[in-house]
Here is the input.
Amino acid sequence: MVFSSTVFLFMFLPATILLYFAMPKLRAKNVMLALLSVVFYAWGEPFWVILLILCSVLNYICGLLIGKFRNKWQANAAILLSIVINLGLLAVFKYADFFIESINSVASLSLPTTGITLPIGISFYTFQALSYSIDVFKGRVGVQKSFPDFLLFVSLFPQLIAGPILRYSDIEKQLADRKTTMEGFATGATRFLCGLGKKVLIANYAGAVVEKLLSGGGFASLTVAGAWLGIVLYAFQIYFDFSGYSDMAIGLGRIFGFSYPENFDHPYMSKSITEFWRRWHISLGSFFRDYVYIPLGGNRRGLLRQVRNMVIVWGLTGLWHGASWNFVIWGLWFFLFLFLEKLVGEKRLSAVPGVLRLLGTFFIVLIGWVFFYFTRMSDVASMLASMFGGAPGGAINTETRLALINNIPLLLLCIVASTNFFARFARAFVEAMQAKSVSMAVFSIPTIVYNLALMTLCTISLIGSTHNPFIYYRF
Here is the structure.
């Protein structure tokens, strides 16, 4: 079940809100929300929901053992078991066939693959469960003794499928004590609808053009202009798709009284690759920093070890996104420029005009998205050749020219919406209303009109469209 579906919007979500607020106490609300989250997951994964529950049970037990036998061998065994469980699930369900195929390719063997399908969201909930066990072991958080509350942490449906990746410390206190208010509900609903608009009104339309231009790796008639139009729109598609989902998750969490950390901060406004990764998928970047990079030694112990640590982190970052070598290369592509920026230094980089740094960063990110989009390296090579003058269809043809002209409004919308323009406008509007001491009732009218208009447009678009995938579901 996806957030941008009529089933979710008009059946599951209203029913969940009614059942949740019908519960008299927070304990009952948590139990109800945990059960509904399991139902949400089972809707799309009726069999692999067993894996989600099993993962939750085993990590819950590991947490109890770590808390009971702290600083003893039993606690060490429990944290080792948690690591083996979570990474083992990823190894079997996400990477087993990748490793087998790689061995077959290198050693010219014919080992059979498992054919196991990838459970939705496994990369997210295993990382969350693992971070809990590590943080309990390190003494950063307390042990959660209520299994319904722990299950809620792992399976909370707003962020279960595609993040943001939650730390237990993010919501530890909120599980035991949180309040739902009308203001929070209204704020959450507006944030959810903003994310829905990003997904349905921008990402879906950009994705339809990308699919037409680049789908299937058919390069026979691709032009230089078509290649650049396709990859630029893909960059905007993946941003509005994923940041839209994060906005919806944060908004839904707010409706139920949870406060989630931000996951995106206008990354295409970045003036360096280092800045880009501070703004893009923030929860994943901080996870690898805190649980991989720093434990490896971080920036300490000399340049060579720092390079080694960065290579490991960015290789794993790429591999986390998919069991394919193109994702590993995508991660190492960013490592290369992150390392170069460290060598050059921020002071020297800042001497370059801001516009040039902005355009240069976006250019590097665009090339990276080529590695991300195409899983076969032969397609990556053909796409790069097409972008830099070797397109079979020449520089531009009539079809590409029409596609470019017809999508100028979409491109302009993507550019403006990827900046902080709308956020600044909203803040200015709120400050102006507060300065004039406008009553809350009057102040809320524009928000209600905005929400209703956005919901209406999204519903019309969903009913009339068949292109509605979430890109990050496959990760």
In short: The chain has a mean pLDDT of 89. The CA atoms of residues 5 and 65 lie 41 Å apart.
